[in-house]
Every structure is written in C-alpha cells, then in structure tokens.
Amino acid sequence: PRLFSPDGQIFVVGIGFFSLCFLMTSLGGQFSARRLGDSPFTVHTEVLGGLESRGVLRKISDMLEVILKRIDALSRLGNASDSHRLEDHRLPWDPVGLVERIQAIAQNVSDMATKVEQILQRSSTSQCDVPKDPHYPDCPSKVDWMRARWTSDPCYSFYGVDGSDCSFLVYLSEVEWFCPPLAWRNHSSTPSAATLRSDLGPLLDQVGTGKESLSFMRRRIRRLAVQWSAAARRLDNRLCSRWREQKRILVHVGFLTEESGDVFSPKVLKGGPLGEMVQWSDILAALYVLGHDLKISVSVKELQRFLGVPPGRGNCPLTGRLPFDLIYTDYHGLQQMKQQMGISLKKHKCHIRVIDSFGTEPAYNHEEYATQHNYRTNWGYWNLNCRQFMTMFPHTPDNSFMGFVAEVMNETDKRITRLNKVDSMAVVYGKEPSMWKGKEKFLAILHRYMEIHGTVYYEAQRPPEVPAFVKNHGLLPQQELQQLLRKAKLFIGFGFPYEGPAPLEAIANGCIFLQPKFQPSHSSLNHEFFRGKPTSRQVSSQHPYAQQYIGRPHVLTVDFNDSRQFEDAVHEVMRTQVDPFLPYEYTCEGMLERLNAYIEHQDFCQVDAPFPSMNASKSWPGNPPSPFILPPNSSALVWAPNITAPACWPPLSAMQLLLAQEGVSCVGSCQVEGLICEPAFFPFINNPEAFTGLRVHCEALEAEVNHIFPAVSVEPGECFLQKEPLLYSCAGVQAKHRRLCPCRDFLRGQVAMCKDCV
C-alpha cells in the first residue's frame, strides 16, 4: 500500500531537511562562520569545543540518520506501477542530489565530532592552563568571566572564541591584553623591504575622486610627480640603497570625512583654505615614494574596514595585532578612531601620528594635568607623547616637524624669472574679501609705488572690499598663480592667514615677502583665532618661520601701523634683487629625508628603561660620578665622550644642556644660543647629576608633576625633578624658576635633523 502521496513525500523530506537547517543555524556562536563567503552549512572545526558542542554534533548525526532512512523509503516507492502517477507529480528537486548533499553533511559532522574530541583533549593539557603571572594579575578573573559570558556578544566568536580555555587565553592575550602571550602561538613575521618609488600613477588611483578636495590633491601630486621622482633617486644614492623595512601605513584624513562635516571640499574652488590639503597631498606622496604599503581613508566606513572593527555590541576591542605599523591622522580622525576602537586605542595609540598645524604643548596634552591646571581645550588631552604630533612648520620643538613641499625652479626657469621680474609689481596674499577690510591706509601707500594685483574669489560682482586700483584676477589655478608670482617683485601679507604655505611658494618664485609684525604677539590670551588651541605659543608675525629661518633679503617683517617704517620697507623691496629661494626642508628631497628618519628612528611603543640604571651609574667617572662634562669656556654640559650613551634619537652626542634664565622657556633659551630644544633628551637630564654638573646647589631635591620641571626655584634654591614623563616640555615657562634645557644643534635648512642624525 502507498504510504505517502508525492505531495506527502515532498512534505516529509522538506520537514526533515528544513529541521536540519533550523537546528544548525540556531546554534549561535558555536557555528558562527568567520568568513563572509561561508554558507550556513560550512561549519569550522576551530570554533567548536566543549561538552555542549559534542552533544550538538550527536543530535545532528541522529537527525541525519532519520532523514536518510525516510528518503531511502521514499525512493523504493518509485516502482513501475506508480510510474505514471509520479510522472504526473514530477518533483521540483533531485532526490539523488539531495541524498548526496545530506550524506556529505553527515560525513562532515562525523569528522567534526572526531576533531572536537581532539580540541577537548588539547584544552585540558597544560599549555592552556590559566597562568598566574604577577604582571597579568587580572588574567584568572577575566578567564572566569569569559567562561560565563562568552556567548553574550557575537564579536567573541568573530575572534575565534569557542568555549574552550585555549580560545579564552588566545583572545585575552592577543585581542585584549589581560593575559600573557602564549608560547605555543606564532608571533613572528618576516618584514618586507621598502624600495623608493618613482612612478606615482598607482598613488593617484588610490587617492580616488568624488570630492573636489581629492581632485585638488590628485592635481598637486601629478604636478609634482617629476620632482618627487628626481628626489627619490637622489635620496636613494645618499642612503646607498640600504635596506629599509616596509611599514604598513594607514592615512586617515579625518577632516575630509562627511562625519566631521567636511567644510573644506565645497570651498576648494571658492577661495577656501588649501594649506591642509597641500600638506596631506605631500604626506601621501612622500610615504608612497618612500616605498611603504599605504592605505588611504577619507570616511568612517573605510576606517572601520581597514582597522577590522568587529561586529556585535562593542564589548570586544579591535583585534590585538593592529593591521598597521603607523597611522597618520588629524584631531578629527583621532576622535573617530576612539569611537571605533574603544579601549583598544589605549593599547595602539603609540602607532598614531597626528597632523597638527599649530602644535600641541605637553601641558595641554596631559588630560589630568590640563584639567587641574586650566589647560583643558577642545583639542588636547590625548595623553600621547607630544612628538607624535606633527606640525606644518618647526615652531613647536615639543612636536615633530612634518612640513610640506614647494616647487623648485630649474636653472633655466630661474634665469627667465630674473629677466621678467617687474620691480613695481606686487601681489596681495588674501583670497577672501574679508581679509582686505581695514587695509586701505597701507594699500594706498603701496599704490604710490607699485601696481597691486589680487586673487580674490568672486562669482558675479567685484568684491567691494578690494580697492578700485587693485587689479583682481579672481581665483587662479596653481599654474597661472605661479606665473603671476614669477613676474611680481613683492608678495605682501595682511596678517592672516597665519603660517600658510603661500609665502614659501612666493619666495620660491623669486618674490620678496613683506609681512606685518604683531605688537603684542598673538596668542590664545589675546586673539580669538588661537583661543581653544592646545598651545600657549606667542606668534610675533604672520609667518614666524619666514621671519626666523629665512629673513632678509627674502623676508621683511615690519610694523604696518607705522607708515614711515612701511614706506621704507617698500623702497627696500624695489631696490633689492633676489633669486628664487627655498629652504632644503621644504623640497621633495628634504621632506623625504626627514620623514624617512622619523619612520626609522621614532618608536613610541618601546618602553624606555629608567635612567640611570644602577649598573651604569657605578661606571661613571668623576667625584661625584656623572655622565656629563663641562667643556672649557662653555656654559653648556655635554655627554662625556668616554661614556657609552643609551640608545636615543637624536643621539646624545648632539646634546648641549643649559640652565635657562629665570622665567625663560627652553625654546627661548636654546634659540638664543643658536640651538633648538630637544624633548627626546629630557629623560637623560632629569637627575641630580645634571644639577651638579651645571653647578647648581640644591637646598632640597624633590620629584613633582609640573610641566616646567626639571628646574630650580630662584628662592630658596629647591631643585625639582619631573615625575610625569608626558609633561617633559620645551615650551613650559614660569616665573621664579630656572629650567634645565636640553638643546641640540641642527642642520641649516633641515631643522629636524642634527649633525649626527644623518
């Protein structure tokens, strides 16, 4: 007799098959696939373990046997007498194929059952015993928590947690850091070599399109490609093609993301600020030319993808092994990384470099100290090593100087520029109409001697702020602006914007830059623009770098409110002949050299050993013993040449240790001596021997948390050491104290490098 009609056969097989599907897909984290391409039936043995998994496998095996028996019975119903009925009710699926499919699943489950036994045996061995290590006191309690709660968030399964103690320990040592690394895990990798590149075509593809800001960056990279290639060849020859490790680098341009508002892209073609995009373009080009493995992100979605942010409810941190050696970002990007990485940011922040145009000083960077001492702003308080902040100009020695590049003229172009210069032609530095307000007085003086040209953006009508005697060209493409600068004799600033790239580009095209002196200096105390920025820096002119490191005859800095002084400066410009000039540090080769040195030598993940060690101090000569000597006719201590110096970059052989005057910062003290303050040296002079070597008599010696220490009070002569390394500060200053200032020499045209650094 017929047990089932064809419809009944479909029903039985369907119920059995979909029951199997339901059972397998309802197992949660025990069968969660870790690869996007896996089907619901692809179950990985590495995510199984424990008594629960073993029982589940047995249930699946039993169900498969029942389904196979029912299908076998159904297959015997297809005899000759029923063939005409089956023909009328042809099944939409292939019974033979279904049988083979289920048999394959059954075999897979059987194999997994065997492997589960192996996993359980491995979990019970000593290699997965929970360690009791005093350096990881929270490890046992974290393992207990994982045993009870590992199924509470899918992100744990994403990282391979399967319920076994082995998986708990792997997770807690490699994804989080509560347990020590497991000796039986492979933590090694073979580094690749970085080879200097001359073809920037692939980089242009990486930068992409879709925003006017990105198009601007692509145009700039393409325009400078020949100079980058030539610089790469010259640097390779100087480095003698030595082996360099290729770094995995992520560049996340936070201020261009939609999540940060991206106010820059819409203004690219309307006279908006381009300085940041100039710098980011050059950073991308330099990192790529240096041969590193580069990824570029301009959205939070891309940031998530590159970092490998796990799914779930946010209980898991980012994977323990960061997929990048270095991450270059800005303050916007840093905030976005905090939101995406959570507690992992604390572990990985030593890999981050923050592009910061105006600088961040230590007193603003240390969160607790800034809060307690009224240094808290909207931008600081990240508790980084301040050398991780990288500036556009070398104005803050506590930070690293990143910079940018300007185009260099060849000899033929220089000769043509000299012949075509118009001594009575001036170009104004100011693309926005608002910059021209209140400037009528000195513009009228300038107009008596020179023809004035402007590049002010406008759409339909000429901006009323621009005087009628000014020839306004509107916003010019870079190549046309360059031609205008090559004809002009004078490039004049109005006092804003501060510290942009345009004055250097004008000087590189043979102009003299005339800028206003600020009296008093602008700072966060008296000027709205600097209010809220994490710096107390005193800005003495529109472009302090041009004033300090270039100067006459290429740069004149005068008081524009003094008509006689301003008029004298105009006369000086007209009678002075200058050639195009660009400091080496703003050439492609200079930036490549500097950035390569940072990548090779700056390591903020390495924990410095306390200095001095007991063994080292015992070997020092002198009475009392000291690693410093005071050369004849000098007021600066140096490292004794017969004592092995600890590892440091810049090297300690470049150090000159000074005692600052009362109320003077280390920036100013070093500058007076023609040197630059070097924060990397502070750990090596934060000791009694430094005071003794400088012939300071200490009535008392204490260690405290203060951004001006190490220092000595003028009265009553107490000496203070620094207790918090993040507060070592070149910029710090306070009345009634004299600071210990570690200075160094620097190469002319390459401030970031000392003579022994190359």
Percent range for helical residues?
25-40%
- What fraction of the residues are assigned to beta strands by DSSP? 5-15%
Q: How would you sum up the major sheet? A: 7 strands, mixed
Outline the low-pLDDT stretches. 1-6, 22-52, 78-93, 120-125
**Mean pLDDT figure:** 85
**How far apart are the first and last residues' alpha carbons, in Å?**
96 Å
Helical element count? 27
Number of strands: 21
Give the overall silhouette: globular
The whole-angstrom Rg is: 34 Å
Task: Specify the structural class.
Answer: alpha/beta
GO molecular function, one term: alpha-1,6-mannosylglycoprotein 6-beta-N-acetylglucosaminyltransferase activity
Protein name: alpha-1,6-mannosyl-glycoprotein 6-beta-N-acetylglucosaminyltransferase
InterPro entries: GT18_cat, MGAT5_Glycosyltransferase
Domain Glycosyltransferase family 18 catalytic: 155-743
Explained architecture:
By secondary structure, the chain is of the alpha/beta class. Helix 2 packs antiparallel against helix 4 (95-123), helix 5 (139-149) crosses helix 7 and helix 12 (300-307) packs across helix 13. The protein is built from 27 helices and 21 strands. Residues 155-743 form the Glycosyltransferase family 18 catalytic domain.
Q: How do the helices and strands line up, and which of them pair or pack?
A:
Elements: H1 6-25, H2 50-76, H3 83-88, H4 95-123, H5 139-149, H6 154-158, H7 165-175, H8 201-207, H9 212-223, H10 225-238, E1 248-252, H11 275-289, E2 293-297, H12 300-307, E3 326-329, H13 331-341, H14 344-348, E4 352-355, H15 362-365, H16 367-372, E5 389-391, E6 400-401, H17 411-420, E7 422-429, H18 440-447, E8 451-454, E9 471-472, H19 478-487, E10 488-493, H20 502-508, E11 512-522, E12 539-541, H21 544-550, E13 555-558, H22 563-575, H23 588-601, H24 614-618, E14 628-629, E15 638-639, E16 655-659, H25 666-672, E17 676-677, H26 682-685, H27 688-693, E18 700-704, E19 711-713, E20 718-722, E21 737-744
EC number: 2.4.1.155
Transmembrane segments: 12-31
GO molecular function: alpha-1,6-mannosylglycoprotein 6-beta-N-acetylglucosaminyltransferase activity
